């Protein structure tokens, strides 16, 4: 087997942190001024260093700084940047053709990706897929499919859920700022119910799963009528909402309720899928077999691709021509997905994600013992987070969270924040990151927490 760095874009780039200017450096600041003049303000920036190259666990900027990557471009480059198989397959595809539109004249790569999705996603029932460009588009299409197949309109979503930035997916998303604020009116027939968030469940974590499920089911039954619900849509491990792991038992109970009432159970695995949580899909942890599953982010090593995969009879319900899009399943993006999946198999990336958890979680727990600022450590595999609170309370500490993130950035560690209350630091390293970089990143985090 080839080595981790060889297959993960690593060889082109020394796997070593290097901070040679202030962050951002002079060249990045110059580019930032140009960005401010030319790019809409609504498009934000977490860390304004301009990237020159990236690979393995390193992001190198135009000033020559090399940052440790705990973000993977938001859980996208799980196989690393410019992973060998992704580059090989996309390059080969680029020289043959770049686009025909799969709805006009199809090509093998599209079919091959759908065959892989049928093999890799949970459940051994007959499955089919349709490919799109972005996660939001996949979620929109899952709703279209569920509505068509059931002849019903209502969609049930959950507190802290995130599903995208298009009009329908804004409506499906819980958090107002920054995703929805000022962008209404939103699509109708969306109903939000409680999720089992153990850390913040008022009666404590013990009864959280049962009580949250009872409340959610009561609301669905009373306010909507289960017979009017087309789909129930949930992230099995919530991403933007703050890496909330619904208390064990909650998801199976909701899936069971959905099944009993002919509701299409949709797992949004756009962030948690493709090896991120130590399984191919986070649904596997509780043995869930979703009717439909949406994927994107980690699927194609950085190229834009998304999918809806699910029960063949549901996927086939809509009339021919009812699903699609000009670029959906672009041949270069499909080649990238096949390269990414090849890499995941070759390097056994689910095992790598579990190893990352093994290294990181005990360190994060030790930090939580030392710093009262850390209210909870949670997550699975290489999808881990700490929730920051005012010491001695559960009151969210978004200012401290932002300060710790900035201190990490200055020291050469790229971390992201998340959470409904903006008080979660989330860690999404590429699954191919070297263990030395992982440890060094945690040292930097420790230093940043000491400062805060
Ligand atoms: C990122 C994300 C989306 C939206 O995907 P885009 O590609 O940004 O449109 C939807 N659902 C979840 C769970 C996500 O993390």
UniProtKB/TrEMBL annotation:
Gene3D superfamilies per record: Aspartate Aminotransferase, domain 1, Type I PLP-dependent aspartate aminotransferase-like (Major domain)
Database matches in Pfam families: Aminotran_3
GO molecular function, one term: 4-aminobutyrate:2-oxoglutarate transaminase activity
Top-level lineage group: Bacteria
Family annotation (PROSITE patterns): AA_TRANSFER_CLASS_3
Pathway(s) it belongs to: Amino-acid degradation; 4-aminobutanoate degradation
Reactions the enzyme catalyzes: 4-aminobutanoate + 2-oxoglutarate = succinate semialdehyde + L-glutamate; (S)-3-amino-2-methylpropanoate + 2-oxoglutarate = 2-methyl-3-oxopropanoate + L-glutamate
Family stated for the protein in its record: Belongs to the class-III pyridoxal-phosphate-dependent aminotransferase family.
Annotated protein name in UniProt: (S)-3-amino-2-methylpropionate transaminase
